[in-house]
Amino acid sequence: MADNKRILMVVTNHTKITDDHKTGLWLEEFAVPYNVFKEKGYKVKVTSIQGREVTLDPTSISEEKNAAWAAAEEELKNTVKLSREDAKGFDAIFLPGGHGTMFDFPDNETLQYVLQEFAEDGKVIGAVCHGPAGLVNATYKDGTPIVKGKTITAFTDSEEREMQLDRHMPFLLESKLLEKGCNFVSGENWSDFSVGDGKLVTGQNPQSSRSTAEKVVGAIENR
User: Fold this and answer.
1) DSSP secondary structure, 175-217, as one string
2) Contacts of 62 (CB under 8 A, 6+ apart)
3) Which of 58, 113, 136, 154 is 20 to 30 A from 143, comparing alpha carbons?
4) 56-90, pLDDT tens digit by residue?
């Protein structure tokens, strides 16, 4: 039954790229999948790397409030901190993006532990845009990268350069994922593009938020 399915969403708490350039969670990449999961009848637990209120990337906030996203935004006002206990009891984990993830996802020991447990248990792992930054250091217990040999996508190096933020990133996401042995695929810049490879589902950019979430649902239902 759908109402027995549980999704763990993990979001960033990192708030700046440079002193002059603020960042955070990209709202659409959280709110759209959150709504997809809730509409399906899934229970959703929202966590963040550090807990507390989550900062949104200012450029992801529209001047006009999106009423459909209100419940999702409410979840961000007081998130619980991700813990090792979150590695069990869920059918899938979903990592929304925002440039903040490039700074606090890759080396967070708790997130890496949780992702490893999900991978070892054959649970669904989904990520969109910069969310796959959480996957660059994720491995199985034998040290094999969980993206090795998998067909995945993420925010492309081309899109990063188009935003002129490539020089401020700790690494380029597409390039780093390729280093880990994945088969990286992508669509045109800023087009809706997502891909599922077994239990691993990834999306390219904000425009891919819905299709990525829908593929996660498909992977859960087919599990």
Assistant:
1) HHHHHTT-EE---STTS--EEEETTEEEE-SGGGHHHHHHHHH
2) none
3) 154
4) 999 999 888 899 999 999 999 999 999 999 999 99
Per-residue burial over 39-53, b = 16 or more CB atoms within 10 Å of its CB, e = otherwise: ebebebbbbbbeeee
Q: From start to end of the chain, where are the E strands? A: 6-11, 16-18, 21-22, 43-48, 80-81, 92-95, 124-128, 151-152, 183-184, 194-197, 200-203
Amino acid in position 205: N
Share of the chain above pLDDT 70, in %: 99
What CATH number is given to the structural domain containing 75? 3.40.50.880
Q: Tell me how many domains the chain contains.
A: 1
* Domain carrying residue 79: 2-221
pLDDT at residue 65, as a whole number: 84
Structure tokens at 216: 């996660």
Tokens of 176: 């780093």
Q: At what angle do helices 209-221 and 27-39 cross, to 10 degrees?
A: 40
Active site residues: 129-130, 160
CB under 8 Å to 172, separation ≥6 — which residues? 157, 160, 166
* Global confidence as pTM: 0.98
